[in-house]
Amino acid sequence: MIPTPFALAVLLLALFCKGAQMPRALLLCSLFGASAAIALPGLGGAPITPAILLMPFVVWRALREQGVDAVARPLAWPQAGFWLLLLVTWGVLSAYFAPRYFAGQTLLYGTDRGSMAGVRLLPLQPLSTNLTQAAYAVAAVGVFASVAALLRVPGRLAAFGDAVLLVTALNVVAALINLVELHLPVPSLLEHVRNAGYAILVGGEVSGLQRISGTFAEASAFAAYTLPLFAFCATLWRAGVRPRWSGALALATLGLLLLSTSSTAYATLAAYVVLVAVGAAWHATTGRAAVRFGFGAWLLWAAAVGACLVMLLEPGTIDRLARFFGVTLIRKLDSLSGIERGSWNLQAWINFLDVHGIGVGLGSARASSFALVLLSNVGVLGTLLFLAFLGRVLVPARAAAVAEDAAAEAVRRAARHAVLAGVIAACVSGVVFDLGVAFYTYAAAAVATTAPGLRKRHEVRHAAA
After folding, report:
1. Shortest CA distance to 341 belongs to which of 431, 422, 262?
2. pLDDT of 33 above 50
3. pTM of the model
4. Using CB atoms within 10 A of its CB, is residue 152 exposed (0-12), middle (13-18) or buried (19+)?
5. Which of 104-113, 208-217, 307-316, 455-464 is least confident?
6. Distance between CA atoms of residues 128 and 94, nearest Å
7. What is the model's pLDDT at position 259?
8. Model confidence over 60-77: pLDDT tens digits?
9. Which long-range contacts (CB under 8 A, 24 or more apart) does 354-357 make?
10. Does residue 303 carry a pLDDT above 80?
11. What's the whole-number mean pLDDT along residues 131-136?
12. Which listed site, 7, 82, 192, 359, has its alpha carbon 20 to 30 Å from 395?
């Protein structure tokens, strides 16, 4: 193992952060997605990222502060964590047995960190990625259960919302630094952050715009991380929670996503907006929510009027926009990258058929869509288990929706929107099973409920104060 300066930073966080601060520390570490806290030469230099290194300390804090019962409760039937636990158990078993049982029966696109050849077509066999992806999956269970337990205490859900706003602000600053480095002859600061050994695809130009990657290895990874932040902040803004900060950060994040030139950003934004609009229309027509035209509706109306005026005064604008989105979305499929990723998806579907829907094992096959990653790696059973987990997160039980105040419920709703945006982004361009520590942190916040006893003591203390 080779530690880096990030390892010292993580250890300091683990030493000085109390249980209430651990979710914030975990989100902060997740911002450094292309950073290595520890390199593992034995696995071809596979990195342990800061968030993964902090994870055991988060579990330890949760066990010490809340107890074993509180950490195990989110994993019990019929909670969302129960389905996640079954999924990860099936995934770990498949990572070991499937590549051996079906060895040589299909060709797949995979990578082995013991080789420097990168992603290539090879026969099904045990790979180092079976081990690493299984480890990340186990870490996901630990993150989900521990964060849900830590957020049981009254007031912590609201604090979690503030933590997401802080991380969003830092992500915006990092993206702006990235833009300065791309456009001005200044020394690069972010290259010292991207030390995980990943293939770094920084810079590049699309229709005159520089691609934004922030602290990540490429623009699509930046977009996949930033999209849930946008959904979270926009939802808080609509709920009136810290409207100045949440609104400003949502607007800044949206602007950076539009400037990123990432097809992942554009496709996910379009799908997310459509789903949110359909959901709002459904709630309005079924009487669950009243139709309201607030500041957001007026803002959209003003944007539409402004766009019409621009097209009338500058008719060439629509042609330039059409060419831009043609390059980033439509003709993207005809590029070398698009053709390569299309072949990954086709081969992943072939893998799914070749092993009769059982899966080639967690971590074996790569694809360019999380949906095909699920089908090819963990098969029909694993896909159904993930859908059950996702359903419990996005549509919680009515009893779980009771919060100690409106701000906490708004944070829970914002976390559900972040999970939705994260899943859409993964289905657009996700290449592996691991959805990241931030995703499971949002999922834990989405289902976190305050313990009745803790809520009562909190209300008593609040009344006495």
Report:
1. 431
2. yes
3. 0.88
4. buried
5. 455-464
6. 14
7. 84
8. 999 999 999 999 999 999
9. 354/102, 354/105, 354/106, 355/98, 355/102, 355/105, 355/106, 355/379
10. no
11. 92
12. 359
Helix axes 406-429, 263-285, angle to 10 degrees: 130
284 token code pair: 């309005």
Structural tokens at position 312 = 């009338």
Please tell me which residue, 315 or 182, carries the higher pLDDT value. Answer: 182
Which residues contact residue 379 at a Cβ distance below 8 angstroms, ignoring those fewer than 6 apart?
A: 94, 352, 355, 357, 358, 359
Residue 344 has pLDDT above 60, yes or no: yes
What CA–CA distance (Å, rounded) separates 127 from 449?
40
Asked whether residue 452 carries a pLDDT value surpassing 70, the answer given is: no
Give the list of residues 6+ apart from residue 126 with CB closer than 8 angstroms, or none: 99, 100, 103
Buried b (16+ CB within 10 A) or exposed e, 115-149: eeeeeeebebbbbbbbbbbbbbbebbbbbbbbbbb
pLDDT digits (tens, 9 = 90+) for 353-392: 999 999 999 999 999 899 999 999 999 999 999 999 999 9
Q: Are 203 and 211 in contact (CB under 8 A)?
A: yes
Out of 164-178, 276-290, 337-351, 401-415, the most confident range is: 164-178
Please state, as a whole number, how many other Cβ atoms lie within 10 Å of the Cβ of residue 294. 9
Length of the chain: 465
229/216 Cα distance (integer angstroms): 15
Contact 370, 439 (CB under 8 A): no
pLDDT at residue 193, rounded to an integer: 82
